[in-house]
Amino acid sequence: MRTGNASGLRVIGSQSLGARNYVAMVEVEDARLVLGISGHQITLLHTLPPSPPIASGLPGVAGRQENAGPGFAAALGKVLKGR
Predict the structure, then answer these.
(1) What is the dihedral angle through the alpha carbons of 41, 47, 52, 54, rounded to the nearest 10 degrees?
(2) C-beta of residue 62 within 8 angstroms of C-beta of residue 47
(3) Which of 1, 51, 56, 66 is a good FRET partner for 41, with 20 to 30 A between their CA atoms?
(4) What is the rounded CA–CA span in Å between residue 20 and residue 6?
(5) Nearest to 26 by CA among 82, 76, 60, 77
């Protein structure tokens, strides 16, 4: 999977599901998208609101990993649980 930096598009994470099959979460300007990706198609699985902004330079803020909320695995589990 390419993680190039197109304007307003960022790959947050991905998980391989087998040969040429992935689930990926990408962030666009106003949403996070959970995508199913195969060798022949891309399917929108779920849309999430944008990530909250991360405060930097504030006392007690250690970094994005601790304060980013649920990670990719937790978000994917939540989406799959609802199916």
Answers:
(1) -20
(2) no
(3) 51
(4) 22
(5) 76
Strands 31-37 and 10-18: unpaired
Structure tokens, 70: 């649920």
In order of 25, 33, 39, 46, the CA distances from 77 in angstroms are 12, 14, 23, 12
Tokens of 1: 């999977």
Asked if residues 22 and 39 have their Cβ atoms less than 8 Å apart, the reply is: no
pLDDT, tens only, 19-72: 989 999 999 888 999 999 999 999 999 999 887 776 555 454 444 444 455 677
Token pair for 54: 């991360």
Measured distance CA(10)–CA(78) in Å, rounded: 21
Amino acid at 6: A
Joined together, the tokens standing for residue 69 give: 């909320």
CB 31 within 8 A of CB 50: yes
